[in-house]
Amino acid sequence: MLAQRLRNLIQSMVLVTGMVGLLLTLGWLFAGIYGMAWALLVGIIPLVVSLRVLPALILRMYKAKALSVAEAPQLHAIVNQLARRAGLAEPPRIHYIPSSAPLVFSIGSGKGASVAVTDGLLRLLTVRELVGVLGHEVSHIGNSDTWVMSFADVVTRVTRLISLLGQVLIILNLPLLILGEWSLPWIPLMLMLFAPTISALLQLSLSRTREFEADLSGSKLTSDPAGLASALAKLEEYQQRVLKKSRLPGVKGIEPSLLRTHPVTDERIKRLKDIEREMYPDESMLVCPEDGGPCAPPHIAEVSRVPRRHLSGLWH
């Protein structure tokens, strides 16, 4: 388990370094040392804005509602215990999303962190499985993954912007190129053209690495990798049913692993089973040693509306 965590850490550092290095190289090709400085400066502003503004905006887009302790005592008890084990100064707030799609995500950092769960998730998973999923999300917060992925997203966007500006300059100078008064450096040109794609692929790889790390960290918090593995299997089964209904007959929807934000579920489950063999859990260490059925708040009616793609681009 320690070897896997070390490998995830090294891989994350290499990927982040590669993305920043690519951005600075592009800035240098565009305007020398000043281009590198501007690339960093332009990246800082959207990073700060995204960390402060986006969490509340995204929750609003999902129509999420904060759940009080009185409304969901079991959920709060689980999240509070996980937060203590993760060493968080404060437990994340819990938000409820009125959607039948089984979704869960963590957002924000520090005192502004939140975990959002849908009605569909609370009714699909058992308590044990829900503990595993919440442990995964609390680990994302404890590992500062929100900050890391926001940083990676900003780097990719700034890389795309500089690449676009460089391409515009080349187009504007086409007359000089045709007249032979300006030579086109092909290697920098190729880098400028493909830099956004390379940066995006590095970002996706970083996302998959952080997901693996959250699986490991979450399993350590709950002392129950099997709970998370069972939840992942259920969520994958649901996703495949949805894809089968939405897909044209005879069309196979195979997503290349390079283009995934999350690792393949089978690989995640395999790693969790490997962790389980290495762990010797004490029943008293389990956040929720007893298993039970779904734990949706009893006062909230079940959402029956079929999930759909909204104008915001979100599916819920």
UniProtKB/TrEMBL annotation:
GO terms for cellular component: plasma membrane. Binds 1 zinc ion per subunit. Its main location: membrane. It is found in: Cell membrane. The keyword Cytoplasm does not apply. GO terms for biological process: proteolysis. It holds the Pfam family Peptidase_M48. GO terms for molecular function: metal ion binding; metalloendopeptidase activity. The chain crosses the membrane at residues 12-31, 37-59, 161-180, 186-206. InterPro entries: HtpX_protease (IPR050083), Peptidase_M48 (IPR001915). It is a multi-pass membrane protein. Residues 71-275 form the Peptidase M48 domain. The keyword DNA damage does not apply. Keywords: Cell membrane, Hydrolase, Membrane, Metal-binding, Metalloprotease, Protease, Transmembrane, Transmembrane helix, Zinc. Its cofactor is Zn(2+). Belongs to the peptidase M48 family. PANTHER family: PROTEASE HTPX. This is Peptidase, M48 family. It comes from Geobacter sulfurreducens (strain ATCC 51573 / DSM 12127 / PCA).
